[in-house]
Amino acid sequence: MSERVYDKDIDEIVARPGEAFVVELAGQPGGGYVWALDIDRDDVECAEMDATDSTSSIGGSDRQRFRITPGAAGTATIVMWYGRPWESEPDERRSVRLTVRDDG
Length: 104
Prior knowledge:
Layout: E1 4-6, E2 12-15, E3 21-27, E4 34-39, E5 45-48, E6 52-53, E7 62-69, E8 74-83, E9 92-100
């Protein structure tokens, strides 16, 4: 079974313990803009994957990919920050509710 892929416009993700999924986010790393993710539970693993180039132009956008693997059943909040790391405020901030259900 292939991993489910989500973007920044989702409000809730439902998964099972150990069932990995991918969050794919468009950005402009050539201009210093990158995404960072914070998750409020220690048993949810998040690993950044290789970025994919969605354009061939200089300064074009890339897609950052994060593989997330939830731990035990429960809820978590995934906060996605977009901006330049050296600036004090992000350009964009999104929150997604993660519901982990152990159905069986």
